[in-house]
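Quick one, tokens below. Sequence please?
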């Protein structure tokens, strides 16, 4: 094939692949199999390798990412990216409507209602149909140039044939709900810290300086607005949405024209019922005036447009005052901000603390000490601060400065800290940090590790603070006399703790492997390693090649395990554990069941069972070839429901997942 023939074939392949990308990622109606798509893709790769002069930036092969950047360059938005004011009740929506009509006396007003996607705002500029630059929202006037990362997102077109001369599209980058669960399950299996939520995972991904890392994340985007445009004019917002879709941009699955505010309210309720079926997380609806000429006359305030507003779904929410922000240090050194709250009843319990996730979330939501905040407990999760009631802000409340608050050092040990861009988080660099030791002990004694009862956070804090425990092996040297003198620790309680620690000397092998806290080795990986190697000695002595023969152990995990067992500090710890009599029980050989109601099924458990603890029930399912997960999704086969079931039950019912009460579960066992 000569160059002219190659050019013709390359153009044909790109056109065909772009068409199939749109059918798959935007319209959700693929026409060919993954195998056939891969065949076309490989043919294009081979031709581009043979004729490198024909490679262009908009080729489907150019989504793999390039060399890492040193920093992100700033991008000035030609049209500012404004944030929206929030409402939380239907009456507040009616008040918004009244304000709009007051500013447009006697005029007919039509609204558009769209889902409020909980992602990361992005703006992408096309010129002559070619993707020129992708940027974050930033402060609304200036964002970061993340073009290299944007190009790795597969449902964002690299070119938009038929687009106007200048066409700036705006929307949200997000991590699909199912992809987020898989990513976190993989991270937990590898012993890495899971992301707090899909939005944080997306933000951390887009802030990677190495676009090759981003290319491995299944990010997506949805578009619902335009910025600067040349060569096209719109009169209605509905026209914008229709034009975006016609050009191949993914747009919201559901949006509605509404004749008045009462229809807006009805559609908002309808959207909330569809929430569990959407590929992205939403935290409400966005209401916009449809007529763009009315947008101009309604204008904006200093920070938000008057022609649009966000309606936040209540889920399970309450308002209270944020009295302080404290910083917790995790097992891996992550510094997590926590809101200290005036106690408030929420979802059947009293809430006095809630997570603030990280520095960026505090800045994005402009959370300040003294604010009245909205706390949400959506399902069986840790409560989180989801917003601020700005009109109740006290005079003198200042923006929260994370680094200044902790004086630029670890609040637990005073050691140096560094910023981890992947998690948009700060970490303590001191491996001897007492806070990290406390969390490491909590991990070791936890139910999913060595399962040692009566060793709670308060007692662990005292043991470390008083120097009684300097590593996990020291637990086995504790005596009743040492413990009985501690706060809230009588002789009987001290005896129970010592007995519980002693009883852990002969736990299953996987529990010890998990409890050791090896980087990249979570509970799932620990189980598979124990089943494969069958003894701690065999695992500790394995070389990297041998380690990779175990199921789901790749090069990164193998290297981490190898390094752990060859670290002199860890070798000394293992020797001391053995001297303390810690002898893990080696797994029995058993064939995985090929038949039965749980074989090959994905099961979630919610609520309290009378016959089994949660962990025991999970183990019974695993013995029968089932897979246990924590989140309900479309791929869940069964939800086992005990007493006081949470929101997982409602979600399972929405998705049509089979629900088993305890009697039905016991019968299946």
């Amino acid at each position: 094939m000569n160059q002219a023939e190659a050019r013709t074939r390359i153009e044909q392949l790109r056109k065909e692949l772009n068409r199939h990308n749109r059918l798959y990622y935007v319209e959700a109606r693929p026409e060919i199999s993954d195998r056939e798509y891969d065949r076309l893709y490989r043919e294009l790769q081979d031709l581009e390798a043979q004729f490198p002069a024909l490679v262009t930036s908009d080729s489907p092969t150019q989504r793999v990412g390039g060399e890492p950047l040193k920093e992100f360059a700033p991008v000035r938005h030609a049209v500012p990216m404004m944030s929206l004011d929030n409402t939380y009740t239907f009456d507040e929506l009616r008040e918004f409507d009244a304000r709009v009509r007051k500013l447009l006396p006697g005029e007919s007003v039509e609204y558009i209602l769209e889902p409020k996607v909980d992602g990361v705002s992005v703006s992408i500029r096309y010129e002559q149909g070619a993707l020129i630059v992708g940027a974050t929202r930033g402060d609304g006037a200036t964002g970061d140039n993340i073009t290299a990362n944007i190009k790795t997102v597969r449902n964002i077109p690299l070119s938009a044939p038929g687009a106007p001369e200048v066409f700036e599209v705006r929307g949200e980058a997000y991590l699909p709900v199912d992809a987020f669960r898989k990513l976190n399950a993989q991270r937990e299996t590898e012993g890495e810290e899971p992301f707090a939520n899909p939005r944080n995972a997306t933000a951390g991904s887009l802030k990677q300086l190495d676009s090759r890392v981003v290319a491995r994340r299944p990010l997506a985007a949805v578009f619902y607005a335009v910025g600067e445009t040349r060569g096209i004019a719109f009169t209605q917002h509905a026209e914008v949405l229709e034009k975006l879709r016609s050009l191949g941009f993914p747009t919201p699955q559901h949006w509605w024209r509404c004749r008045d505010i009462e229809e807006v309210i009805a559609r908002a309720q309808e959207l909330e019922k569809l929430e569990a079926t959407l590929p992205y997380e939403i935290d409400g609806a966005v209401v916009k005036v449809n007529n763009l000429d009315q947008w101009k006359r309604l204008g904006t305030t200093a920070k938000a447009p008057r022609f649009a507003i966000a309606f936040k779904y209540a889920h399970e929410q309450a308002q209270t005052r944020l009295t302080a922000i404290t910083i917790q240090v995790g097992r891996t050194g992550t510094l997590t901000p926590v809101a200290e709250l005036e106690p408030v009843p929420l979802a059947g319990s009293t809430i006095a603390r809630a997570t603030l996730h990280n520095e960026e979330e505090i800045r994005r939501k402009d959370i300040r000490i003294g604010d009245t905040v909205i706390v949400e407990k959506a399902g069986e999760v840790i409560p989180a601060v989801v917003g601020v009631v700005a009109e109740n802000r006290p005079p003198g409340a200042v923006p929260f400065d994370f680094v200044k608050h902790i004086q630029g050092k670890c609040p637990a040990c005073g050691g140096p800290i560094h910023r981890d861009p992947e998690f948009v988080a700060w970490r303590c660099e001191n491996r001897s940090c007492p806070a990290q030791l406390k969390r490491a002990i909590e991990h070791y004694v936890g139910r999913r590790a060595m399962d040692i009862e009566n060793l709670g956070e308060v007692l662990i804090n005292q043991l470390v603070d008083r120097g009684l425990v300097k590593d996990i092996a020291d637990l086995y040297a504790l005596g009743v006399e040492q413990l009985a003198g501690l706060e809230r620790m009588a002789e009987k309680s001290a005896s129970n703790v010592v007995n519980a620690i002693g009883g852990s000397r002969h736990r299953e092998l996987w529990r010890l492997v998990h409890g050791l806290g090896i980087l990249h080795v979570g509970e799932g990986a620990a189980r598979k390693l124990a089943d494969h190697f069958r003894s701690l000695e065999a695992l500790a002595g394995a070389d990297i090649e041998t380690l990779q023969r175990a199921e789901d152990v790749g090069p990164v995990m193998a290297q981490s395990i190898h390094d752990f067992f060859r670290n002199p500090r860890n070798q000394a710890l293992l020797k001391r554990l053995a001297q303390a009599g810690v002898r893990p029980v080696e797994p029995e050989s058993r064939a995985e069941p090929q038949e039965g109601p749980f074989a090959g099924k994905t099961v979630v458990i919610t609520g309290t069972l009378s016959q089994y603890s949660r962990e025991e029930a999970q183990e019974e399912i695993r013995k029968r070839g089932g897979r246990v997960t924590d989140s309900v999704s479309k791929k869940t086969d069964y939800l086992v429901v005990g007493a006081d079931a949470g929101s997982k039950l409602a979600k399972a019912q929405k998705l049509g997942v089979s629900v088993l009460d305890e009697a039905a579960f016991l019968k299946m066992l």
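The chain has six domains: 3-63, 86-312, 317-405, 434-506, 509-579, 602-668. The CA atoms of residues 632 and 648 lie 6 Å apart.
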